[in-house]
């Protein structure tokens, strides 16, 4: 049985340590040669054949400009045979470059590893390969994109960010540029087609292009697309799904767009609602073309398909086949049965393939095609819709990052293979997230790693919204698509993020920035900033009540607020140390998303604090309202700075702080406390909605939650002012073992002085010992602990005219079986466990793995053997399924509700589920099923919360030591947290903090 060291986590985030897995076999180091690109007064030249395609010319010019941007000298770009002893760069495509072919024919260059491969190139330094030359850096590409990628690999090694233009990442200036060039082969990529879907562009990309960058087109035209395609080349992406909302003219209706894509060697495809490269939303005209319904208007629809294929056949394309309704709606055929609808789609597909054969002159089996089973189309497919075997099945996520289905083992044999359409930005129900980058990078890795393991390797498309502010997500996604073997676990995601930040802002700041962004994504995991009003859309609802508990478990709302305010302080501190040349880049890539998310949380969390404070009569309600409104005003100011000040207005109209003007972006309503004639003193105790002096008259015993010596916990008391004026207060503990964070203070109308939170802790070395026993008394009710086990005291709070006594109760027995006990301990009627802190795990061929960067505790436990069989028979579960084991101790007994929280994924494919099994002590395993269906309310709440919770009843026979087991039933389930509720849990957004013995 394998033992694991505990990884205890406190608070909202931890500084994770990442690193690459050590290689298991010693490898011979590749040959490395120093190559000087530039030195004072000397600059390399770049040579290529004039017969090379446009993308090679573009990449060459980009490289030359990059070199000039670093050292101030512009390399010459020439064609023909080179001469001279200065260092030279020679780049070309096999079969298109006279220079490369000459080196191959003379056996000076071996291209056997790349010839005929997809997007593969070699890079090496040759000594005097041509007469009269010195060192020559040779880049040979298997195809036009490979050669372009090879040229831009030099820019990468120089330190040029792919975001040099798109996020204003200015490189450090140097007089000399020298590189250590490894003689190696690059590619072929892990995923054949890798690209971006420009979507929901209404609030950023389209108005920016139309009004700022490309006013001559007044839309997203060839000038804008050229910049997008340049970014894609630098990221080694090769596929675009163009912007297609009603605010944007259709891609093929703007002169120059299609040619720009071909110039940059970008393959054009389209989304699930744009068949055959047709933008139905923008191009279909009802008044002249009729109804968008194939069984009633086949001739006009078919003509549209034919015209588009005819006009695009000379370019590189991927044709989306099938047919949905207009703009992301189901097929317009409600009068047909489901079987008739499926038959109609199959007829559409057959006709589309016939059109491809006629217009391209090729066998349709050789023309790239994709079928995208999105939303209701997945239901059709699952019920038997036939799709030709050579077509790529593009599986989709549920719009919130959880892929709905993958290919079965049999489907993985299809020659068309499969791919993934994945959202990092979304417009729709239950709520949009269009404003900031809030998807955890580790989740993107987990879902795409799963896709890769299940052979979805033909096409990955990322819905990236307006591109900004999803820069890091885009780079991570493309780096994984290029070489997924470099990402065997979530550890590499953290390393990738830290390396990316280090390259942007300096290695000396990388670790601190990585910690900041890790915390940012952790907080966004628990709830995205766009979801903080507890409202929904489609239909749109008003802001609702928060689920964050303000009165128990240390006040989880205020803890979240403090965490976000702490991040704001950290990012302000870091910003001051960023070099001037990188200030604008830092603002776009780090400062604005972190600050914006923090302010959105402050706006709504202070609103919720205002509501509670007003109900309790606190004067501080007005402070909370003011802070909430100040956060909103700051969001407006920061967004205005983004649009008008950055780069002297370069990004004007790019950033919107209120996409679709949903209620979450509005100003909250604020409550006012009742007015009083004179200042009054109030107390609010952890665990109570009402203030203390409105509790049952003269009965203040045991009002604070019980404090447990085995948990070393603490509770709080708020002292606050009611009405206007000022007053002094003091607190006196009855016993010296009661420790107060403050024992006196002044309340006034000044900002921040209307209330004060007092933490109550216990000096457990001084508190009297309760009854000593071998074990707790059998059958006692934890809420009614026998007096012999309790130690009671009180705290007196007083002002000039008021005294309020607050009872303090401690539980301080000494049980022999808890001597040196290292497990989990029951708190006030519950045991809370972070799943990664198991005592042991075991399994036969499948094991559990800890993945950091996911879940509420900062890590989850998962089984990633996705091809493993599901195990559903209880006897087989106990005998063969991998199991996690947790030791815990209760002072209570009886029925317990074992609540398990997981990451809300979907079944891998038909025949699989989202299940685990649990049991306490020697009970039979009870299977827990987390699967959701369609857009049910359960699914909506799961994706809004990034958590799925289900429970199983178990019996705890007696107080004392117990054992919880969690078994795998289906592979891929990610266990986050566990709550064993014996009746004491009062409800909270997240499970209470882990109850580990301290």
Automatic annotation (TrEMBL):
<keyword id="KW-0378">Hydrolase</keyword>
<keyword id="KW-0732">Signal</keyword>
<protein>
    <submittedName>
        <fullName>Glycosyl hydrolase 115 family protein</fullName>
    </submittedName>
</protein>
<dbReference type="GO" id="GO:0016787">
    <property type="term" value="F:hydrolase activity"/>
</dbReference>
<dbReference type="InterPro" id="IPR042301">
    <property type="entry name" value="GH115_sf"/>
</dbReference>
<dbReference type="Pfam" id="PF15979">
    <property type="entry name" value="Glyco_hydro_115"/>
</dbReference>
<feature type="domain" description="Gylcosyl hydrolase 115 C-terminal">
    <location>
        <begin position="823"/>
        <end position="994"/>
    </location>
</feature>
<dbReference type="InterPro" id="IPR041437">
    <property type="entry name" value="GH115_C"/>
</dbReference>
<dbReference type="InterPro" id="IPR031924">
    <property type="entry name" value="GH115"/>
</dbReference>
<feature type="signal peptide">
    <location>
        <begin position="1"/>
        <end position="28"/>
    </location>
</feature>
<dbReference type="InterPro" id="IPR029018">
    <property type="entry name" value="Hex-like_dom2"/>
</dbReference>
<dbReference type="Pfam" id="PF17829">
    <property type="entry name" value="GH115_C"/>
</dbReference>
<dbReference type="GO" id="GO:0005975">
    <property type="term" value="P:carbohydrate metabolic process"/>
</dbReference>
């Amino acid at each position: 049985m394998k033992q694991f060291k505990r990884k205890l986590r406190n608070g909202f985030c931890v500084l994770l340590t990442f690193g690459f897995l050590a290689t298991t076999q010693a490898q011979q180091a590749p040959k490395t040669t120093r190559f000087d690109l530039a030195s004072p007064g000397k600059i390399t030249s770049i040579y290529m054949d004039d017969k090379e395609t446009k993308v090679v010319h573009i990449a060459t010019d980009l490289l030359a400009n990059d070199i000039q941007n670093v050292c101030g000298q512009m390399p010459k770009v020439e064609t023909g045979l080179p001469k001279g002893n200065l260092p030279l760069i020679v780049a070309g495509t096999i079969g298109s470059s006279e220079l490369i072919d000459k080196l191959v024919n003379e056996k000076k260059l071996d291209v056997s590893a790349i010839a005929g491969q997809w997007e593969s190139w070699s890079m090496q330094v040759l000594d005097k390969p041509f007469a009269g030359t010195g060192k020559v850096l040779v880049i040979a590409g298997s195809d036009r994109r490979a050669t372009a990628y090879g040229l831009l690999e030099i820019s990468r090694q120089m330190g040029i960010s792919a975001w040099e233009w798109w996020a204003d990442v200015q490189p450090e200036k140097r007089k000399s540029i020298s590189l250590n060039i490894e003689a190696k082969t690059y590619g072929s990529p892990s995923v054949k087609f890798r690209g971006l879907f420009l979507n929901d562009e209404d609030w950023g990309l389209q108005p920016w292009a139309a009004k700022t960058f490309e006013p001559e087109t007044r839309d997203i035209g060839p000038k804008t697309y050229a910049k997008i395609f340049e970014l894609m080349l630098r990221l080694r992406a090769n596929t675009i799904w163009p912007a297609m909302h009603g605010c944007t003219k259709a891609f093929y209706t703007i002169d120059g767009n299609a040619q720009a894509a071909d110039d940059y060697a970008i393959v054009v495809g389209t989304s699930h609602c744009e068949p055959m490269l047709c933008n139905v939303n923008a191009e279909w005209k009802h008044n002249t073309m009729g109804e968008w319904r194939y069984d009633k208007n086949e001739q006009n629809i078919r003509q549209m398909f034919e015209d588009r294929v005819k006009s695009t056949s000379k370019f590189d394309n991927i044709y989306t086949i099938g047919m949905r309704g207009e703009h992301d709606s189901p097929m317009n055929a409600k009068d047909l049965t489901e079987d008739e609808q499926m038959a109609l789609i199959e007829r559409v597909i057959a006709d589309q393939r016939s059109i491809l054969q006629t217009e391209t002159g090729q066998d349709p089996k050789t023309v790239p095609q994709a079928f995208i089973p999105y939303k209701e189309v997945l239901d059709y497919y699952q019920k038997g819709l036939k799709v030709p075997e050579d077509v790529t099945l593009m599986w989709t996520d549920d719009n919130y990052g959880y892929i709905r289905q993958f290919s079965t083992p049999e489907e993985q044999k299809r020659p068309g293979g499969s791919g993934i359409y994945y959202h990092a930005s979304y417009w729709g129900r239950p709520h949009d997230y269009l404003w900031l980058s809030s998807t955890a990078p580790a989740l993107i890795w987990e879902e795409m790693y799963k896709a890769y393991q299940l052979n979805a390797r033909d096409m990955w498309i990322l819905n990236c919204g307006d591109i900004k502010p999803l820069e890091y997500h885009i780079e991570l996604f493309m780096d994984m698509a290029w070489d997924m073997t470099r990402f065997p676990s979530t550890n590499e995601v953290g390393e990738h993020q830290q390396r990316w930040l280090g390259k942007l802002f300096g290695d000396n700041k990388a670790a601190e920035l990585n910690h900041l962004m890790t915390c940012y994504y952790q907080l966004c995991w628990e709830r995205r900033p766009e979801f903080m009003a507890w409202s929904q859309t489609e239909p749109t609802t008003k802001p609702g009540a928060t689920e964050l508990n303000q009165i128990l478990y240390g006040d989880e709302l205020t803890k979240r607020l403090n965490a976000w305010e702490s991040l704001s302080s950290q990012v302000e501190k870091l910003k001051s140390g960023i070099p001037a040349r990188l200030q604008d880049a830092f603002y776009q890539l780090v400062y604005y998303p972190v600050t914006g998310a923090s302010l959105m949380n402050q706006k709504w969390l202070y609103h919720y604090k205002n509501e509670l404070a007003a109900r309790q009569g606190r004067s501080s309600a007005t402070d909370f309202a003011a802070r909430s409104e100040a956060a909103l005003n700051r969001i407006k100011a920061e967004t205005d700075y983004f649009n008008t000040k950055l780069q002297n207005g370069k990004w004007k109209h790019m950033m919107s702080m209120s996409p679709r003007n949903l209620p979450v972006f509005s100003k909250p309503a604020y409550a006012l406390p009742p007015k009083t004639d004179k200042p009054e003193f109030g107390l609010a105790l952890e665990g109570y909605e009402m203030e203390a002096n409105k509790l049952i008259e003269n009965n203040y015993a045991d009002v604070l939650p019980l404090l447990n010596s085995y948990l070393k916990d603490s509770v709080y008391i708020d002292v606050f002012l009611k009405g206007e004026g000022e007053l002094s207060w003091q607190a006196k503990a009855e016993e010296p073992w009661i420790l107060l964070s403050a024992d006196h203070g002044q309340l006034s109308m000044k900002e921040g002085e209307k209330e004060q939170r007092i933490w109550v802790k216990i000096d457990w070395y001084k508190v009297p010992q309760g009854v000593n026993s071998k074990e707790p008394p059998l059958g006692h009710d934890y809420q009614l602990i026998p007096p012999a086990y309790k130690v009671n005291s009180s705290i007196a709070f007083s002002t000039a005219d008021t005294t309020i006594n607050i009872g303090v109760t401690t539980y301080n027995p000494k049980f022999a079986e808890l001597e040196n006990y290292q497990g989990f301990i029951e708190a006030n009627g519950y045991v809370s466990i972070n799943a990664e802190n198991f005592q042991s795990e075991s399994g036969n061929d499948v094991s559990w793995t800890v993945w950091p960067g996911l879940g509420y505790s900062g890590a989850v436990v998962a089984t990633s053997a996705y091809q493993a069989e599901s195990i559903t028979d209880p006897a087989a579960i106990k005998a063969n399924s991998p199991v996690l084991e947790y030791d815990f101790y209760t002072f209570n007994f009886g029925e317990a509700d074992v609540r398990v929280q997981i990451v809300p994924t979907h079944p891998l494919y038909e025949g699989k589920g989202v299940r685990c099994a649990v049991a306490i002590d020697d009970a039979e395993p009870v299977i827990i099923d987390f699967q959701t269906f369609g857009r049910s309310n359960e699914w909506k709440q799961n994706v809004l919360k990034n958590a799925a919770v289900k429970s199983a009843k178990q019996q705890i026979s007696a107080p004392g030591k117990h054992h919880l087991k969690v078994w795998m039933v289906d592979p891929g389930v990610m266990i986050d947290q566990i709550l064993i509720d014996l009746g004491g849990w009062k409800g909270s957004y997240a499970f209470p903090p882990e109850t580990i013995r301290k």
